Amino acid sequence: MGEKIVYLLVYHVLFIMFVWSYWQTIFTKPMNPLKEFHLSHPDKELLEREDRRESQQEILRRIAKDLPIYTRTMSGAIRYCDRCLLLKPDRCHHCSACDMCILKMDHHCPWVNNCVGFANYKFFMLFLAYSLLYCLFVTATDLQYFIQFWTNGLPDTQAKFHIMFLFFAASTFSVSLAFLFAYHCWLVCKNRSTLEAFRAPAFQHGPDKNGFSLGTNKNFRQVFGEEKKCWLMPVFSSLGDGCSFPTCLVNPDPEQPSLPPGRNPSIKSAGESHQFSPKPLRGSQSRLLNNGQSEGSEDRDKRGTSNPGLTIEKET
Length: 316
Description:
By secondary structure, this protein is mainly alpha-helical. It has 9 helices and 9 strands. The strands form 4 sheets. Strands 2-1-9 form a 3-stranded mixed sheet. A two-stranded antiparallel sheet has the order 3-4. The protein has a two-stranded antiparallel sheet with strand order 5-6. A hairpin with a 2-residue loop joins strand 7 and strand 8. The chain is elongated, with a radius of gyration of 24 Å.
């Protein structure tokens, strides 16, 4: 009886958390860029009337000068969506299925019939975690009866075929979910989305796959927040607003070994990060960068804060 009670308690805790996180992933509306990134009606008309690229650049330069936009297209142009008529914030992409721009878009998931992005990425991670634990629990508790099935230890009833089917279904989902969950854990540790893993975000100095990586600990807190009591709960606790992200100016992965002795000291080491901040970051974002910065960070902040030259390239 004690074993049955423990099984029931653990099962229903995992089941409730699984359904809760799955519900949050499905019904959390993806966040769209703020109105500051949208072109006003006069700007739209002015941009449509202009045929010269130089004039169009001036229009976009005026619009984007106060916006925290630092990623580019692969050709070096400002990322502009001609369907939503907006300047794309960093890590924002247009979803063809939803027909809208999604902040920090990871992918459009058919299993939840929703876009996975800044608003629900934590919920998606918890959905994968609890569904994996749920399947592993079912597999583990069903294993002894599965063994009895092959050793003719079960009563000769129709229910024993249900036991066999349950074991194969739960174990198969466990394997597939384990690979998917491990992959997204790696993405969280590297602070990348699925789209950024396939195509590195481009900055003024070129593509940089580690452009948003601040180290494993800070990358994790950027998704799950700073309150440890909220990490395992399907409640929103991610840091930032989804439109601006702390970033670094150098290419090396901060988890890789630093430069060997004898290298040019003027070259930045892998542990040094750079903060782009045309407008003040939220307090939670600033804390991510304040920890462990060197005394010379103020001088580095002065570099790279000017918005790059803009050219129009429509991107859908």
